[in-house]
Amino acid sequence: MQPNSRKKTDLLLMVALMPPTLIALNYFMLGEVYFSSFKNFGIASAVSLSVLLGVWIAQGMLAKKMLQLFPSHRDTVKRVVIFYSLNLTIVALTVTLICWIFDLFNILGFRFTMDAWTRSLIAGGICTIVNQAVYETEISFGRIRASQLEAEQLKKAQLQTQFDSLKEQVNPHFLFNSLNSLSSLITTDPYKAEEFVVEMSRVYRYLLRSNEEQLTTLQKELEFIESYNLLLKTRFASGFQPVIAVEEKMKEYLLPPMTLQLLIENAVKHNIVDPDAPLIVRLYTENGKLIVTNNLQKKNKAVVSNKIGLSNIIQKYKLLNCTDVEIKETANEFSVTLPLIKNTN
């Protein structure tokens, strides 16, 4: 939730919860005399409100600190227990202070007795529990709303990825080159032509289904990339040389679908791919991350690019609350380091 929205919500909660808290505390402390006249009601409410406002602000700061220390929903129980304990302590001190003020200035004839203090303490404790429950409910609903918004944004990003990739793969150049390669294979190597068609169908099938999941396993991505790489190797022969060295234990980790295809496509698009100057694309895992690199041999003629592929990948990882994608370029190499997400299933 945005800071301004959070402040607005806190203000609305204070407006809604402060009056009943104030009335309950004064009634339990003073009894019927509190409602005996508008004057009594006004005096008692004004005195108590002057103290409660300060306490409410302090509790709000404490609540904010608790959310910073325990931001995850998995820490809710721990946060609530600690917050309740601290809150009840603050309430006990506040009730004691209010009772002392009323007794010191002889407001409405109040006397600080154990009975009056106990009643006030019970009222303050009940109000605190109720207010805290309302606050926690609002926090939970806020997280649900935020999660739904992030899910929608992630789905939108995935659809954009799918559209961009399909647009790239279905463009006349790609189809012409693929069909030209297929035509040559039919004449020279019918068996390989059949394999080419199978791999091509797998590529398109994966592209069409990629928006159905927010995350996929690295194993599935690598299987897809094998098909995609075969098309590129058929087209460029030894000019395209993929090298895959992924640890077996990392293959069950997760990442957004089509991430690898976008990176390989980006490398092919911006670099010379020729048997005399092969483009070497390496995919490997290191320290729980996936690294994709390629040697830099940029085309003489600059390629028009809106950099949708890289920005789309970065946006997806941000929506997934993962560590930043690292992009580095040296004189000889371009690399992208991707966080891999542990598969909790």
Automatic annotation (TrEMBL):
GO MF annotation: an example: kinase activity
Signal transduction histidine kinase internal region domain ranges (all copies): 162-238
Keyword line: Kinase, Membrane, Transferase, Transmembrane, Transmembrane helix
One Pfam family in the UniProt entry: His_kinase
Entry keyword annotation includes Cytoplasm: no
Membrane-crossing residue ranges in chain numbering: 12-29, 41-59, 80-105
Protein name (database record): Histidine kinase
Organism phylogeny: Bacteria, Pseudomonadati, Bacteroidota, Chitinophagia, Chitinophagales
